[in-house]
Amino acid sequence: MRGSILALFLLGGIGCSTLHIKKPVSCDSAALLKFQDADQIILYSLYPSEVRNLVMDKRPESERLIGLPEFHEFPVFGTVRLSDSAQVTSWATTLQTALVDRPESVCDFMPRHGVRIIHQGLVTDFLMCFTCGDMVVWTEQSRAEMHHPVWTKKVRNRMNALFDQHQIERDIP
Questions:
Q1: 155 lies in a domain?
Q2: Residue 110 CB-density burial (10 A; 0-12 exposed, 13-18 middle, 19+ buried)
Q3: CATH number of the domain bearing residue 78
Q4: pLDDT digits over 24-81, tens only?
Q5: CB neighbours of 165 closer than 8 A, spacing ≥ 6?
Q6: SS3 letters for 1-16?
Q7: pTM, rounded to two decimals
Q8: Is the peptide bond before 149 cis (omega within 30 degrees of 0)?
Q9: For residue 8, is it within any domain?
Q10: pLDDT digits (tens, 9 = 90+) for 99-149
Q11: Where would a tag sit more exposed on the chain, N or C end, judged by fewer CB atoms within 10 A?
Q12: Where are the alpha helices (DSSP H) in 15-132?
């Protein structure tokens, strides 16, 4: 019995770690933390289950969700594209100043928020699960899970307010 519980705990701990890591991304990397150089920022409202899981689960809403566009395999309810320099600067400041360190966690990674930073054609993508506090980052060269730092709920609240303002559906935990 004890072995079964340990195995279940370890499998549960893998839930956030099932992402295929090509190359670890340093959280100090200028590519990740230099939001102020962004030419464009795209904010994504996501359904927190990957499409392949929706297919397996066969939930009633699966058919509708499977037809939506995807952001790193998560269905997208809608996006807000920020390209006006004042908006980009405002959001870049929020993203930069709302980064905080936190200890690693074990969770069920269910991101409802995505961010794409574009600078001179280079793309950096972020998936954020504010429920467990984990963030995943993609750059042109790598995909890595990132525990330190993460965004505070200030970012979530500002994104949700913008989605609501644009009448974009969002999943509420």
A1: yes
A2: buried
A3: 3.30.1490
A4: 334 444 445 567 789 999 999 999 988 888 777 777 778 888 889 999 989 999 999 9
A5: none
A6: CHHHHHHHHHHHHHCC
A7: 0.77
A8: yes
A9: no
A10: 887 766 667 788 999 999 998 888 889 999 888 778 888 877 766 656 557
A11: N
A12: 30-33, 51-57, 62-66, 85-97
